[in-house]
Specification:
Layout (H helix, E strand, L loop, with lengths): L37 H27 L17
Amino acid sequence: MTLLLPTGFSAVAGVGTLAPPAPAPDPGGQGEDFGKAAPVALVVLLLFFLAVALLVRSMNKHLRRIPKSFEDDSGTGPRAE
């Protein structure tokens, strides 16, 4: 059995017309704002590193003040019963 179509029609007519248009080429993320955040990010990272260094230094000072033992030899501290 054969399919008879009117003249001007074919079995594959209109296949390409439903496809979406081709996307524009991607410039690779290098638009007009590319690279402008790098100096700000560097300053923020340097501030974070400075804050961490100061916190480590302060923690070391506090840890040096802790006594070697928490046992109370004088007998005036609280007793565990």
